[in-house]
Amino acid sequence: MNDMRILERDVDTNTIKFAGRDVHVYYGETEAIKGIDVDIEDKTVTAFIGPSGCGKSTFLRCLNRMNDTIDVCRVTGKITLDGEDIYDRKVDPVQLRAKVGMVFQKPNPFPKSIYDNIAYGPRIHGLAKTKADLDDIVEQSLRRGAIWDEVKDRLDAPGTGLSGGQQQRLCIARAIATAPEVLLMDEPCSALDPIATAQVEELIDELRTNYSVVIVTHSMQQAARVSQKTAFFHLGDLVEFGPTNEIFTNPKDPRTESYITGRIG
Ligand SMILES: Nc1ncnc2c1ncn2[C@@H]1O[C@H](COP(=O)(O)OP(=O)(O)OP(=O)(O)O)[C@@H](O)[C@H]1O
């Protein structure tokens, strides 16, 4: 029932947030992404699926220049966010990552209080003028992260003391706190049990009213439940990209069909 409700919720007509053109990514001599073109829409959940090693995480990391931190990694081609080239010399990757937040596979709260986990980003980006402003950002972020009710009475307790599912929602709240426009999620539920997974999926569905969300997932059920668009990657190519229900019910490429029916991957 829950799944149907998520699928049936109306999808807005969307503007393009990210546009990638002829994007190649190399680790040394190895080409991990082989010249892909993609448009990622605003206020939409886009799922990246495909067999292990096909380049999903590599391409996701291109979108907030996390690959810059890997010495041997080189990105060519063009990626724009709202029409601006994110690899332009003028772009500060730290500012870019405030706009394009990221949530990782394993929940990774800072070894700080719940409050300070959320307040950290707004403090370094100067988003709050007063303590009251900061309190407000912390509360709003925890509310949007669907964890406020569980933590409001213990904001001074360590973030690392929460359950895995709570930690992941804390990390999502932390990513939201810098007022990003896009959230990138790299297998955000892989360390969570089914109940925590359902809570995070519910949250992802809510987040798309305000954000563009891109999620890497190994679970085709999850892609079907939470995304409106799906991109299927295979050996560094973007083989097929389209509405999730079409990819899952009527794939055009035989490689997509083999993957979704469990014959490759
Ligand atoms: N830091 C790195 N240094 C060198 N090669 C890398 C690095 N990260 C990824 N690769 C290589 O790039 C290719 C794509 O890897 P990537 O992690 O993007 O795939 P993936 O589809 O996300 O895989 P998985 O589903 O297993 O997480 C693989 O061949 C991988 O070995």
From TrEMBL:
Residues 18-260 form the ABC transporter domain. Coiled coil: none annotated. CDD domains: ABC_PstB_phosphate_transporter. It holds the Pfam family ABC_tran. GO terms for molecular function: ATP binding; ATP hydrolysis activity; phosphate transmembrane transporter activity. InterPro entries: AAA+_ATPase (IPR003593), ABC_transporter-like_ATP-bd (IPR003439), ABC_transporter-like_CS (IPR017871), P-loop_NTPase (IPR027417), PstB-like (IPR005670). SUPFAM superfamilies: P-loop containing nucleoside triphosphate hydrolases. One of its GO terms (biological process) is phosphate ion transmembrane transport. GO terms for cellular component: membrane. Keywords: ATP-binding, Nucleotide-binding, Phosphate transport, Transport. The keyword Thylakoid does not apply. PANTHER family: ABC TRANSPORTER I FAMILY MEMBER 17. This is Phosphate ABC transporter ATP-binding protein. It comes from Meridianimarinicoccus roseus.
